[in-house]
Structures
1.
Amino acid sequence: DIQMTQSPSSLSASVGDRVTITCRASQSISNFLNWYQQKPGKAPKLLIYAASSLQSGVPSRFSGSGSGTEFTLTISSLQPEDFATYYCQQSYRTPWTFGQGTKVEIK
Amino acid sequence: EVQMVESGGGLVQPGGSLRLSCAVSGFTFSSYWMSWVRQAPGKGLEWVANIKYDGSEKYYVDSVKGRFTVSRDNAKNSLYLQMNSLRAEDTSVYYCARVKGVRMLNSNDWYDSFDPWGQGTLVTVSS
């Protein structure tokens, strides 16, 4: 199975900060990488697919990059509604696997 | 508007069975692969199963193979997950999700992701 590892596991940031979350795959997954946002008690929401494509309706402050084994999700200017947990997920090969999540908290 | 509503969760004893349903509206259900994804309390996300739009292909995570069966009824716009021989470690919120497949320009590959998701249904396996 392909293991996905996110770093950091949690971070504290202030409104307006630039935030970067890293996701590493245990083997090359080309750009078959997605990012999701999950708020407490809610279902996850797709933010980025195919490593860098912004899902319709998602603010442009969210961006994704990377290919192969290393990927990043960047929030250019953190907003109050962005405090949540973020997950990466590979769809290169089943079993599709997720990272363990990165919790973004208010500083 | 796309809506996906799960039902069927509840408390079940170890070794018991449960059938989850996901009622879909707002899109052509019969054209999409569908998935089940679960999340144990306070934990991360785990993909459970996929089913092709016509039900002809199914894929499972190893931990549920032989115990869980995914199925669909395209006439009823419904997705199901039959769960047998349940274990404590199956305790989770179970989400149904549509597989969004995108073929990028100049590529023969389909890039799959989960979008949208239902609200989830909680399954608790405990004596």
2.
Amino acid sequence: KNEVEQSPQNLTAQEGEFITINCSYSVGISALHWLQQHPGGGIVSLFMLSSGKKKHGRLIATINIQEKHSSLHITASHPRDSAVYICAVRSGTDKLIFGTGTRLQVFP
Amino acid sequence: GAVVSQHPSWVICKSGTSVKIECRSLDFQATTMFWYRQFPKQSLMLMATSNEGSKATYEQGVEKDKFLINHASLTLSTLTVTSAHPEDSSFYICSAAHRLAGKDEQFFGPGTRLTVL
């Protein structure tokens, strides 16, 4: 079993839909990252969380430390949101443990 | 914001040659940089952790003599794939740790796609 599990693995949506991507982890963490990887490969760091909730534009990330679970929400989704979303946790050291990613496609 | 660059963005080389990839933090100093490899449709896998002025720490299964890492300054780390073979073809990504508001955050480079013929 992976230490970081994401669901769903693949997700398709119509433009405008509300999207939720989930991340569960089994280790103690000091921080959790949500990353976005576009088809060209470049990675953008969306959020770093250690508690509570953060919002940036149409993106919202929440984390529940007790339940070892985090969610990434996208409101009013748009085709340009199509990418792979990766959850990564930092446990103990500076190293990140990555989930396998959620491939999102938003159709117009 | 913190920006990390990589050069080159893609490279094609012949089997047996060596390839150097640079990772630079453009607007901050990074005492720690990380090198990752990503195969198609897979997640990132950490290869090594690079600290300025000291030897890199390699993950299990990563050959340190094949993947040479040099972190000569606080803004530059290099990864050299020596005697590259087709199985080394992959997407190589670096990240740099930057302390913001008392917390260390990693900023990722755009990646380098290596194809070995």
